[in-house]
Design goal:
Blueprint: H1 4-14, H2 28-35, E1 47-52, E2 55-60, H3 74-93, E3 96-103, E4 108-115, H4 123-127, H5 145-154, E5 160-165, H6 168-186, H7 189-197, E6 199-200, H8 203-209, E7 213-214, H9 225-235, H10 238-250, E8 254-260, H11 265-284, E9 288-291, H12 294-297, H13 302-308, E10 315-323, H14 336-339, E11 340-341
Parallel strand pairs: 1-11, 6-7
Antiparallel strand pairs: 1-2, 2-4, 3-4, 5-8, 8-10, 9-10
Helix pairs in contact: 1-8, 2-3, 3-11, 5-11, 6-10
The protein binds flavin mononucleotide.
Flavin mononucleotide (FMN) binds near residues 40, 213 and 291.
Amino acid sequence: MASTLEYDEVASDIRRPGAEQAPGSLDARELVRLATLAASSHNTQPWKFRIEQDRIVILPEFSRRCPVVDPDDGHLFKSLGCAAENLVHAAAAQGFSADVRFDAGEDRVIVDLHPDDTARATDLYRAIPERQCVKAVYDGTPVDAAEIEALVEAGSGSSVRTLVLTSSAQKDAVIDYVNRGNTAQLTDRAFRDELVSWIRFNPAQALRTGDGLAGRTSGQPSLPGWVAKAIVGLVITPKAQAKTDAAGIAGAAGVAVFVSSRDDKAAWIDVGRAYERFALQATALGIRTAFINQPIEVRALRPELGSWLGLEGEHALLMVRFGHGPTAPFSLRRPLDDVIVECTDEKPARA
Ligand SMILES: Cc1cc2nc3c(=O)[nH]c(=O)nc-3n(C[C@H](O)[C@H](O)[C@H](O)COP(=O)(O)O)c2cc1C
């Protein structure tokens, strides 16, 4: 059986820094590799990439959807937005500017690349391989006002703005919403079955699939599959999750809520992009982040959450806690050849 050492070696190769590139010469496979290091719901990596002349098209992979937690595919499209954002920063490092647009007719994200003498590798680009969701409890220290300002700026986009909540009273209220979400989700058999189907209980299982929620990333012991199946029902309970999330939110410097004036596929792409920028900026500053989306995933909680946040005509679409803490073992990705689809375009690909 594969060891944690093998897991960490593979993860570290997947997360290697971006290859050095002569400015203006495009390495499209490298752009796609960096795009796949983005966050995705349950690490489903619900994407395919088609490399065309001066363009990369990101296509949804609906066979990887999670119909219970994400019935309208909102998280799936947000994940595509995360990947698109990484592409933008990776393209800049290769001397290209990138225009991202959502093609609603075909349900795809089009990233057009243009040579640009002013495009450069930035701190956000260098943070791509290091960005991760850190599920540990943070150390409770505050984040500087100037750093919060940089995070809020990074987390704002065309239809998206980021709200930051840092007071104890606000964090207590968030704990309450998250735990009501936990209770609704973890008492639902279909939700639990779907979640468990994406958990990788040992390094061998994680390495076999290259996707899913590896126990290693959240400090869980490696378990043989049959043992994990036997005890998972006893371990993942609303009460245990409530305790974990309460400690996680209490130890955070704050909570960021990504809100949009719309709630449609184009907005989901924008909000995914905004989260990814926020997380890259956080990574560049040595600040950790982890999602706490339960009150957004449980539809019944959304109106109450929205009015508590004072939203009028806006929608809370993603939520993270952030703060100072250690890094964690990295999550895996599928091989690049599994996510790059043949270019059917007449023109030759530049890859
Ligand atoms: C749209 C979206 C929703 C997510 N929701 C949650 C969540 O509710 N809880 C959680 O712990 N992680 C959530 N994640 C984080 C993923 O589990 C994580 O990105 C994935 O496992 C890959 O790990 P990495 O981000 O460390 O590379 C979400 C990610 C995305 C993009």
